[in-house]
Each structure stands twice: as structure tokens, then as C-alpha cells.
Write a structure and sequence with these properties.
about 280 residues; alpha+beta; D-Amino Acid Oxidase, Chain A, domain 2; 2 domains; three-stranded parallel β-sheet; about 20% helix; about 25% strand; globular
């Protein structure tokens, strides 16, 4: 088995192949997880965002990856009393679908407990919060210092190059149809005091109907992401409009307001969204 791409997906495929006693090689053009995997929200694929798919498609694989991640609580802030039964029912359904694989049962926080946990939350209109659990994945990397070129023969090739999937396919046939739609995901890094060490925050409905996470990461807080169509480039750069969008959404929750000069760093990831021909990603 030859795996092309040393990100989260490629590394996972290679590990799975090795544990099945398959001869396995993995090739990566730069450093392991140096692309999309290192510029992500650091969340394992799944969670309440995929609840509908898990139920409607009976896709229980969404909750069957217990061996890599670190348990992390996520706070869903409530600003209206009617949101409590609405979100509570959905998140409890997620617990039910997970069954014995449930990481930890969700629970409700009062306004005072939410502020105790998240001191930087805005108090205006805050009525409480719901805590549910996803998992954050930590990735290790290593470099080959020699840079030698050699041929690899394999009966099976796994294309795990993410947004570069189509460019690799076209190396075999230039006329092959594209199966992926690249999407830009921007994150900003703000000071760590905006989130506790072991718990994040979810904005379930941004001004344009998307979802944004604020999560602890390396003693800082990472906030994002965006999801806009883009072109595939080797070294993508964040767009100012996307950065301003995240800042404006963060200000709805955190106090004092997060200004542009509080942004410690930012990163831009290219995500692979599939066309209809490609099925699920």
C-alpha cells in the first residue's frame, strides 16, 4: 500500500494498513501535517455538526475513533431561554447515538457557572450554557533528513492529498474530471485567557448561518473557521475579510472586545469538499 499525503488522513490510513500487516509506504512532499492538518480547528471529524448524518445515514463510524484524541468539553452559550430545550434535545440525541462510545455525558451550566468557567464571556443576555464533549487530536511529525528519490511499486495507492487530490489524479490523466471543490478555512489565534485550558466554546449560528469554535490550543485560543470557495495554492494566505469576519463573531461572545491587535497569529487551510461524484468526505 502506498499512501500519498502525510496529513491526518494519510497518516491514519498508513497506521491502519500497518496494523493489518500490510507492507506500507507513505510519501509526503514536505513535513508531516504541514498543510491542512496543522491549520485546522484541531477537532476530530464528527460531533454534533454531523448529528443528522449519523442518524439519517446510520453512520456510527463518526463516534468510533477513541484511540487518538484528547477529551475536550465544548460550551454552547445560551442567550434565550427557549434555546435550552432546543439545544439540549439535539445534544442529548448525540449522546444517545454514541451509546457506549459516548465520551462524556452533556450537561447544563447556570449563568454563574458559565461565567466561572469562561470569565471572558459577555454577561449581557447570558442565561446559561450547555457543555458537550468532542475530542481534540494531537499530531506528531518527523522529517527525513536525506531527501533521497526512489521508486515505489504498490498494488494499492491511497490519494490522501486533501485539496490537491485532483492535481495528483491529473498526473495520470490530464482529462480526468475534477471531483473536489477547494474551500478556504481561516483561523485566528488570540490570547489563552479567552478560554479555559480544557474547554472550548461553540457559536452554533453566526451572522451568516455558519458555526465557529473557540478552542484552547498550545496555551492560546484558536478561533474559526470560515468556509469559502478558493483556488488551490501551495502556500495560501488568509484574506482580510475572513479575519474580520471571525473577529466580529468573536466580539459577540467575549469581553473585553477582541481587537485586531490581539490576534497573535492566523492560519489559512485548504479543505477538500467533494462534488456529488465524490460522495462524502
Amino acid at each position: 500500500v502506498l499512501v500519498v499525503g502525510g496529513g491526518a488522513t494519510g497518516s491514519g490510513c498508513a497506521l491502519d494498513a500497518v496494523t493489518r500487516n500490510l507492507k506500507t509506504a507513505l510519501v509526503e512532499r514536505s513535513d508531516f501535517s504541514s498543510g491542512t492538518s496543522s491549520r485546522s480547528t484541531k477537532l476530530i471529524h464528527g460531533g454534533v455538526r454531523y448529528l443528522q448524518k449519523a442518524i439519517m445515514k446510520l453512520d456510527y463510524e463518526q463516534v468510533k475513533a477513541p484511540f487518538f484524541p484528547i477529551l475536550t468539553g465544548t460550551v454552547d452559550v445560551l442567550h434565550r431561554w427557549w434555546q435550552l430545550p432546543y439545544y439540549w434535545a439535539g445534544i442529548k440525541m448525540y449522546d444517545l447515538v454514541a451509546g457506549s462510545q459516548c465520551l462524556k455525558s452533556s450537561y447544563v451550566l447556570s449563568k454563574s457557572k458559565a461565567l466561572e468557567l469562561f470569565p471572558m464571556l459577555k454577561k449581557d443576555k447570558l442565561v446559561g450554557a450547555i457543555v458537550y464533549y468532542d475530542e481534540i487530536c494531537l499530531l506528531s511529525s518527523a522529517n527525513d533528513p536525506y531527501g533521497q528519490e526512489f521508486d515505489v511499486r504498490a498494488r494499492c495507492v491511497i490519494n490522501a492529498t486533501g485539496p490537491f487530490t485532483d492535481s495528483l489524479r491529473k498526473m495520470d490523466n490530464q482529462k480526468t474530471a475534477n471531483i473536489c471543490q477547494p474551500s478556504a478555512g481561516v483561523h485566528i489565534v488570540i490570547p489563552g485567557y479567552y478560554s479555559p485550558d480544557n474547554m472550548g466554546l461553540l457559536d452554533p449560528a453566526t451572522s451568516d448561518g455558519r458555526v465557529i469554535f473557540f478552542l484552547p490550543w498550545e496555551k492560546m485560543t484558536v478561533a474559526g473557521t470560515t468556509d469559502t470557495p478558493t483556488e488551490v495554492t501551495a502556500h495560501p494566505i488568509p484574506v482580510e475579510d475572513d479575519i474580520n469576519f471571525i473577529l466580529s463573531e468573536v466580539r459577540n461572545y467575549l469581553s473585553p472586545d477582541v481587537e485586531g491587535n490581539a490576534t497573535l497569529s492566523m492560519h489559512f487551510s485548504l479543505e477538500r469538499l467533494s462534488n456529488k461524484i465524490c460522495g462524502y468526505t
